[in-house]
């Protein structure tokens, strides 16, 4: 009797197929690239999928996020939940672990034994975090970014190979644009094809995967490829000779301007007890309910959530938001 992976096994070989069927893979982000990668890898037979994303499904996602339906958007299901339901329909014997939230250093430390990660983020800061964890804990990952009609993808390997920090120094990527920028689905599908092809080769144990960045404009058909080896920087803080993995440093909150909203999100890797927030002891207006603490310093509005996340509205830029955060949301001792 033919098994369900017969056609794939003819290409990869039985030992590679067996390795894939034992693999645990983190898909970081469950938007367009994340749903495409998750579906391909679950169909390919991976043992366990770990999926993390903080958003819920919206109607505007359906044009390119292949796992979701109108019913998911109607119910505003968390993406990881909607994705898991669809993926179990596709393959009932896969193991899926879902997390609704942001990627954090502690999440990555907890999952450091994964065989591979797929980057399906829309921002550089999250990629740096994934990158530093991958270099520190020694797991491979596959970078991917899409904007407009252009896609880019590259495997980032552990152990002395150039990393994402080296790459972003050299290549201004389409990921500069935020998630409100336009994108066509074929650019997602091309990028995901390159990412998941690399993933299957790495998981299958192929030893000749090389760090090459592939680029394509799916409308013109123009392609580029760049060997990343020459980008390796001796002084890189993640893959260089004396790494300190900056994105993994404790107490370094992640800071990110949200697209088109004049709002900066600050995410420390810890919870914030409202009772100890400095701003409450200062002469500025504040309000609090069971979910959020709001502070109104210097013409801005800061919203503090129980999990530690802070939104700074009307902040001119990220560094000013971080200053306000340290001054008003820092903890009283
Ligand atoms: Zn590097």
Automatic annotation (TrEMBL):
Transmembrane segments: none annotated. InterPro entries: ThiF/MoeB/HesA, ThiF_NAD_FAD-bd, Ubiquitin-activating_enz. This is Thiamine biosynthesis protein MoeB. GO terms for molecular function: nucleotidyltransferase activity; sulfotransferase activity; thiosulfate-cyanide sulfurtransferase activity; ubiquitin-like modifier activating enzyme activity. Pfam families: ThiF. Gene3D superfamilies: NAD(P)-binding Rossmann-like Domain. Residues 5-237 form the THIF-type NAD/FAD binding fold domain. Belongs to the HesA/MoeB/ThiF family. SUPFAM superfamilies: Activating enzymes of the ubiquitin-like proteins. One of its GO terms (cellular component) is cytosol.
């Amino acid at each position: 009797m033919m098994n369900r992976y017969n056609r794939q096994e003819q290409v990869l070989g039985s030992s590679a197929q067996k390795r894939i069927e034992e693999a645990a893979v983190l898909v970081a982000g469950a938007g367009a690239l994340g749903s495409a990668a998750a579906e391909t890898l679950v169909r390919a037979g991976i043992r366990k999928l770990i999926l993390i994303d903080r958003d819920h499904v919206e109607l505007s996602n359906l044009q390119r996020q292949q796992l979701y339906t109108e019913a998911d958007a109607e119910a505003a299901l968390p993406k990881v939940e909607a994705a898991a339901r669809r993926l179990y329909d596709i393959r009932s014997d896969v193991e899926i672990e879902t997390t609704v939230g942001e990627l954090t250093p502690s999440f990555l430390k907890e999952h450091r034994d994964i065989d591979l990660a797929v980057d399906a983020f829309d921002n550089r800061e999250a990629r740096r975090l994934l990158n530093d964890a991958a270099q520190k804990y020694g797991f491979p990952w596959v970078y991917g970014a899409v904007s407009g009609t252009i896609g880019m993808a590259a495997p980032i390997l552990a152990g002395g190979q150039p990393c994402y920090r080296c790459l972003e120094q050299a290549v201004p990527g389409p990921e500069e644009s935020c998630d409100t920028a336009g994108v066509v689905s074929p650019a997602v599908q091309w990028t995901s094809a390159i990412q998941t092809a690399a993933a299957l080769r790495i998981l299958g144990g192929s030893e000749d995967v090389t760090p090459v960045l592939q680029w394509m404009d799916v409308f013109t058909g123009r392609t580029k490829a760049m060997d990343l080896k020459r980008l390796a920087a001796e002084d890189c803080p993640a893959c260089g000779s004396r790494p300190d993995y900056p994105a993994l440093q404790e107490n370094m909150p992640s800071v990110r301007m949200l697209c088109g909203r004049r709002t900066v999100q600050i995410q420390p890797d810890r919870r914030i007890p409202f009772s100890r927030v400095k701003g409450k002891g200062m002469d500025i207006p504040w309000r609090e309910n069971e979910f959020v603490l709001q502070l109104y310093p210097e013409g801005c509005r800061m919203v503090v959530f129980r999990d530690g996340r802070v939104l700074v509205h009307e902040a001119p830029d990220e560094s000013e938001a971080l200053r306000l955060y340290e001054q008003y949301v820092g903890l009283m001792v």
